[in-house]
Amino acid sequence: MRNGLALSGTLHWMFDRGLVSVAEDFTILVSRNKVPAEVVNRLIVPDGKLRLPADRRNWPHPANLKWHRENVFGQMIAGGDDHWEI
Questions:
Q1: Which of 8, 28, 38, 76 has its CA 20 to 30 A from that of 48?
Q2: Reduced to 3 states, what is the DSSP secondary structure of residue 42?
């Protein structure tokens, strides 16, 4: 599967709402103006990198991650009042 990430329930919720995403180098991006540092420190590994499977065929597809960065990360949720800046 190239269109999925194994995330905790909290990180999945944050990913869907554009609070976190993944960079081209698999660094985890965080909308820091909306996510407090103490939350980042509890949920994100210290090096800030996504943990990838040994088999590259199971890595998330770069095009899917790019789409998420460009269309979801830092964007307004439909029906929401907040606009999240990166």
A1: 76
A2: helix
Nearest-CA neighbor of 74 among 28, 5, 7, 20? 20
Contacts 24+ apart (CB under 8 A), 41-47: 43/8, 43/10, 43/11, 43/14, 44/20
Alpha helices by DSSP H, listed for the chain, are 9-16, 37-43, 62-71
pTM assigned to the model: 0.80
User: What residues are paired with 22 via a beta bridge?
Assistant: 28
The model's pLDDT over 5-27, given as tens digits with 9 standing for 90+, comes to 888 999 999 999 999 999 999 99
Tokens coding 74 = 């830092």
Separation between Cα atoms, residue 80 and residue 27, nearest integer Å:
27
